[in-house]
Amino acid sequence: MVKILFFADQREKVGKDELEFEGEGMTVQHVKEYLLREYPSLKLHQTMTAINEEYEEEENRTVKANDVIAFIPPVSGG
Amino acid sequence: MEYYKITTEEIDVNEVVLSVVHPEAGAVNTFIGTVREFTGHKQTVSLQYEAYPSMAEKQLQRIGTEISKRWNGVKTSIVHRTGKLAISDIAVVIAVASPHRAESYEASRYAIERIKEIVPIWKKEYWVDGEEWIGDQLEQTSYPTGRPKEDS
Known about the structure:
The complex is a heterodimer. Chain A has helices at 8-14, 28-38; strands spanning 2-5, 18-21, 48-51, 54-55, 68-72. Chain A is an alpha+beta fold. A five-stranded mixed β-sheet of chain A has the order 2-1-5-3-4, with no helix packed on it. The N and C termini of chain A lie far apart (34 Å). Chain B has one domain (4-144): Aldehyde Oxidoreductase, domain 3 (Alpha-Beta Complex). In chain B, helix 2 (53-70) packs antiparallel against helix 3 (101-118). In chain B, strand 8 (121-127) and strand 9 (130-134) form a beta hairpin. The A-B interface holds A 5, 7-9, 12, 43, 46, 50, 53-55, 70, 72-78 and B 33, 49-52, 54-56, 58, 80, 91-92, 112, 115-124, 133-137, 141, 143, 145.
């Protein structure tokens, strides 16, 4: 299982903070495509990917079991 | 002792400042970010900050590390508050201590700009007639859920 975290407008659109699914072996790009099929209102094209709390730029990176993934929307802290 | 924290509590400014004071420092620069009421014509009633706390703290730490590499002998602490904030509440405090004053200004500016680039914190603005997650500081990539009219 891999865990996806949702923040800000994503959390409101999906209606939950996180979900788990059998995504191990998928690439980051495939995980995004899966989420967009499940939740068509999500917007993921402007996000930065984080895996296990570190930014990951490689869309072809394969996710492993127990990875925690977040698609970070444009940040607005400060 | 430098620290990097996301908190839901009110920020104790003095505690952040004291955390960077050290004998080699000749300057301590403190940046305090507060909740602004007006952005152009838009009147903010309150703000809500949300973070990915564990990752945000790592990214704040990364900023501190970047600063210490760029400016020798500079110590940095950063605390960002999350949750619902009212006008003039303190959202972020950055304290930078450096041997000489020039680096303290530069490093402080660097820290706030980096926060706006890489730290997973999001702001939702509540207006009299709507609310919106703010996508970036230029408000060019926001996600309307009840956007007020531009001339409101």
